[in-house]
Design a protein that fits this description.
elongated, about 100 residues, Sulfotransferase domain-containing protein, 4 helices, P-loop_NTPase, mainly alpha, two-stranded parallel ribbon, 2 domains, 2 strands
């Protein structure tokens, strides 16, 4: 299947960690799943039978994106400045 734009890819993608396991194979091929899970948490059969593409982001871009996400959805109840967030991010603090 040839796709001409990124919107078509996005329509095909699901978050692997949010799809019930019994529904993973129900999706027509090619199945494209996205995940933020570390590679060692993914099922072994996925690595044996599927293809895995690991994408790494520039840490600066990741920090900016994560900061804006935290501001938008406010799950962590963080309302500090970007400088404060960056210190927590750099130190790996989850509070």
């Amino acid at each position: 299947m040839l796709m001409h734009n990124s919107a078509e890819y996005i329509e095909l993608m699901d978050y692997f960690d949010m799809v019930p396991k019994h529904k993973l194979a129900e999706k027509p091929s090619p199945r494209i799943y996205t995940s933020h899970m570390p590679l060692h948490f993914l099922p072994r059969q996925l690595a044996e039978k599927g293809r895995i593409i690991c994408v790494f982001r520039n840490p600066k871009d990741l920090a900016v994106s994560f900061y804006h996400l935290m501001q938008k959805i406010n799950i962590a109840e963080f309302d500090g400045s970007f400088d404060e967030f960056l210190k927590l991010f750099y130190n790996g603090d989850r509070k």
